[in-house]
Amino acid sequence: MTPQSNFTICAAIRDGEVSNLRKLLATMNSTLAVAHADPNNKLLPFGRFERLHFARFTIIEAKTADEIREFGVKPRPWSPTLAFLGDCDGDRDSFLAELVAHAEQGLAEIFSFCVGFPDANSEGLLAWMKAHHIEPNANYFNWIGRTVKQAHEEAALHRCLSAHLQHIVDGIGRENTRELRRELLAHVELEKHAGRLSLTPPKRMPIRWKIRNCLHMIGIPLILLLLSPLFLIAAPFFFIWLQWLESTDPELYTRPSIEHIQELSTQEDWDVTNQYNVFGYVKPGIFRRLTFEFILLLTDYISRHIYNRGFLTRIRTIHSAHWVFVDNDRRIFFYSNYDGSHESYMDDFINKVGWGLNIVFSCGVGYPKTRWLIKEGADRELQFKAAQRRHQLPSEVWYKAYPGLTATDLMRNGRIRKGVEIRQSSDAEVREWLSLI
């Protein structure tokens, strides 16, 4: 099994160059879908990189910076920033080296619009990219260990079986399920022998990753357990302070402009999967900042060790999500890849895990007022939807390695492959496997 990594490379854009950078990035896109990358574009041909799941270029602008004034705080200066973001199989550093090896000229042309970008060879470019990587505070991957290659191979397996199933049903009928399975498996072997189908065995989990993951799984609860006496002592003061802050937070409710919504919506629903970016201030004060950091610590732990097999609590439509503190932890940037429409994405969270939204985002400026971290907030649907749209940013370029496939499709294809490689023990299990095809 090969675990995933992510890269979050951010650099300020030189004064007066935002428009020119946007024009350059637009040349990377397909003519068929707004802001969707051409996999074979000349600057950075994403399709050449077999380890790359998702990637995007986003210009982070502080469009809602004035909201912080409602808390009696002067907005901090923020330069428009280019963010190059993505999810890949294996370790990040080797993947960045692969990017530089095969797309050095295009990357250098893109990053040449950024402050401090050196005129350097590939070694200098790689070092610059690593120096500008920001480690997210929390990450979520839909299925840790499912590689891009696996996703493509299992999708091909499903197409192969689906196309052949009707042919053999016409010959032997639907009732003899075990014979149907034998015919399908024989067809798979013939296709593999002909070189039209392959099912690459998963690689062994890197021992260093297993050790780090085990230490993380054990270490975080152990540290929290050791600190639990302090938490018990601090708990009354925490909740008193939290209640006071929540009761005195200013209520911010500003509808996003029609132009802003149109800019966002023109990029959406070209595929079964969409991209999402939001950016804004963390509510001022050390209390809110530490609370947010602790919540994201727990979020990362839960996503890494519990919700790592196809769903995040009750949500099954998210491929990946990342929370990143920037500007000395005074601002938060969140980006994700999800299935379905934007409206259904929001409704999924509101209806299924609104309390989770409140916990994770209520420390952000502009979020609807909550009570005790978990109540109200997202339940105030109109305010919540207006707030998240207002803080949402478009992507200039967005790439997905397996268009047309949802997270549910990927899970189904994985189950089909498992049924090919592991014999079912009963007719009921065979019928269930056949129903997936």
Record keyword descriptors for this entry.
437 residues, alpha+beta, 4-stranded antiparallel β-sheet
Describe the structure.
The protein is of the alpha+beta class. It is built from 12 helices and 10 strands. The protein has helices spanning 18-26, 92-111, 122-131, 148-172, 177-193, 207-248, 258-265, 286-305, 342-361, 381-390, 407-421, 427-436; strands spanning 4-12, 52-60, 81-89, 138-141, 273-281, 318-326, 331-339, 370-371, 375-376, 397-400. A hairpin with a 3-residue loop joins strand 8 and strand 9 (375-376). The chain is globular. 34% of the residues are buried.
Helices, strands, pairings?
Layout: E1 4-12, H1 18-26, E2 52-60, E3 81-89, H2 92-111, H3 122-131, E4 138-141, H4 148-172, H5 177-193, H6 207-248, H7 258-265, E5 273-281, H8 286-305, E6 318-326, E7 331-339, H9 342-361, E8 370-371, E9 375-376, H10 381-390, E10 397-400, H11 407-421, H12 427-436
Antiparallel strand pairs: 1-3, 2-3, 2-10, 4-6, 5-7, 6-7, 8-9
Helix pairs in contact: 2-3, 4-5, 4-11, 5-12, 6-8, 11-12
